[in-house]
Request: fold
Amino acid sequence: MTSPDPTAPGDLLPDAWFTRDLPVLRAIARLVDSSEHGNSPYLLGAVVPASGLPKAEVIAAARALADAGYIEPLTNHAGDIVRITGVSAEARRLTGLWPTPQSEWQRLTEQLAARASHAPTDVERARWQAVADAVAAVGEHDGALLMSALIGGYVPRAR
Reply:
């Protein structure tokens, strides 16, 4: 499949999320979340080596991420982003710092499969496999809804 021509009217622009913005967001999230420097604001220059992308791409990504509300930037008098002070809750979910219902459902199914395959006895293996089969029968959609309730602390009331 060929990339769309960015000069052609009506064509979609090339992807910038997976190739530029998300890697920069991940680098920023790692830096901001680390306690190495007391979660102090990070210079945009520190994001360049952390992301592995050229400085110009990091600058463009930072602008896009700030515009979308994913990062909290500090700017100089010219309006250039010079520091990153924080990331949004959605950025934490997108980068894996916080769970999503889908990621937690996946982790649950992987854990059940591992326990079933590594159980020390046939009886325990059968029990874990039964749980894994029941979880698989619930399905991804309903499973993600369940995990959403668990992550959010929702406890259904007794009738």
